[in-house]
Amino acid sequence: MSHDTKILCSIFLLLLQYQFCTPTDTINITQALKDGDLLISSNQTFALGFFTPGKSTNRYLGIWYNKVSEQTVVWVANRGNPINNTSGSLSFDITGNLVVTGPDRNNPVWSTNVSDPTVAKNSSAQLRDSGNLVVLDSNGVVVWQSFDYPTNTLLPNLRFGVNRKTGLDRFLTSWKSGDDPGPGEYSFKMDLNGSSQLFLYKGSDLVWRAGSWIGRGWSGIPEMTTTFIFNLSYVEDQDEVTLSYSIRDPSISSRLVLNESGTLQRLTWNNNEHRWVEFYVAPKKPCDSYNYCGPNGICDPSNVGTGQFECKCLPGFEPKSASDWYLRDGSGGCMRERGGQVCGSGEGFEKVPLAKVPNTWTAHVDRGVTGLKECESECLRNCSCNAYASADVSHGDGGCVTWYGDLMDSRVFSSGGQDLYIRVDAVELAQYLKSQRHSHGKKGMVAAIAASVAAVSLLAFFLICWLVVKKRRDRTKGSFIDWKMRFNIVLGIARGLLYLHQDSRLRIIHRDLKASNVLLDAEMNPKISDFGMAKIFGKDQIEANTNRVVGTYGYMSPEYAMEGLFSVKSDVFSFGVLLLEIITGRKNSSYILDNSVNLIGHVWSLWQEGRALEIVGSWMTESDSDKEVLRCIHIALLCVEESANDRPNMSNVAFMLCNETALPPPKQPAFIFKGAGNRPDTSSSASAGAISINDITLSAIQAR
Q1: CATH code at 540?
Q2: Cβ proximity of 16 and 8 under 8 Å
Q3: For residue 93, what are the domain limits?
């Protein structure tokens, strides 16, 4: 052999040995991916190769996040047939199928099993930027993809559900354990009986139901809507019933995983802390458990804090076993009161608001119905119909779902859900209507005397303030709302604004969000009130202008106070002020320190000096909450920035409050005035120069 020939052979062998040293996302029919080699997607997000999970010594072919420091596997090929050494290889066989082999090259431990003859020649496999491993024929057509066979993880853009043409069912199955990616006992599937639903199973037993698709999300997951952090896509036609999602910010790594303990987790990667942060988990509470309160029962988690049993019967029903319910066991469910005398004269329906509607296995869905009245009539025509609800609430009430037989797995939420109408007899209906008339009568009375009450309320407010100040001067220290409760109030207000801005059928700008317009119930759950100055926007409208500025200084954004421009960002500004007040326990007008005219200016000064926590009220005792409080101050400063374009929207605010992702540095807030002589002239406005409510002009206005 000549010297030149030896050199060429050596180069060829080196090329074979190091063919995967340069990152690539593709292998062809002549190549093999050996244990130790990697395929890297073109954007470097995902990697494919052989790995060993946990404390195991077995080897598996899988896909994981390439840029995440903690190896996180999202798909496994040979999950049920591990290789016990490092002899694994991924290659194409003579039929064009992608196979994983171990020591015995003639007996693959995994194969794509594609029967298409066109893939036998010139096939290739590519790891795409989405984390999807695809097999392509010579024309570049996808003939197989890993997204059709997910394991325990739902990645963005993966079409989860059923292909009606081929029968392909894409669902999740948990790992056996952290050391064994083999199929575990939990599965998460799309069910097409009745109205399509999502179910979590343990073996063949139902564990949790996500509810039905109601146009903007799933009835059992009010936190997840089409206008939230993720873009949800639901398709139901003659070809498929599928769900997929995309992330609005492509720089965020997020996944939905079914873990081996049987919980679904939405996780987001925190680059600063190098860990996965939990965004959502289910099932979490007793009311999440499937049919926790039995047939015709409904679970209300708000009862737990009051010491009451979370289970109660739906209207017109009573417990089957009073003794079981006394012992707080509602699994036996409920039965019709008075012997079930429905389908008679005088009967009707009682509304259950904010509900997760029952399992639709015993329901009929008619998407051609145009309104609730037609849906009610359809239910009344059949004596076996026990309830009805709208099938789609994304644009008003459309479609109709009617239930027959027992009503299974209902619950109520503090927000979200939908209206459920339960069939009741004449006696029950009369009692319900009487209570409604009483409630409406009280509302009418309140409206009629609102002007008189306003003056009395003002006096009462000053009296309460005097009593509070007096009590604080007492030697005995009063009780304070702790940080956990304050944070829950903040979250509740954020979710309420998010609903008004995005989830409501019509976009609503409150325009007067302040402490006195947030009501707290007995469980300290916040409710946004007083919509007297609210404005309704069209679906595509983002901003409006007014010549008559109304509201409360101190909570009004600069563009609204000075120019009459208002938008969702105006409410965001008000939320930021309110958040600072909740953290500090002081009003925006209560600080004239360090030449700062208000609370915002004082907080901003301390923030620049790295002393922001000094603003926290004396109620703060838990040092372990310092980090969370500081983050909330940071978010508040982002909300009160001078430019509306720089402020986050409420969906971003809610995301920042619930997660630990990095936050951008805040810019200088609005209304930072140095010295009393530099305060803005509040005696003039776009109209008559005064803040006006119900045409009552305030002659003296104090900045708050």
Answers
A1: 1.10.510.10
A2: no
A3: 19-149
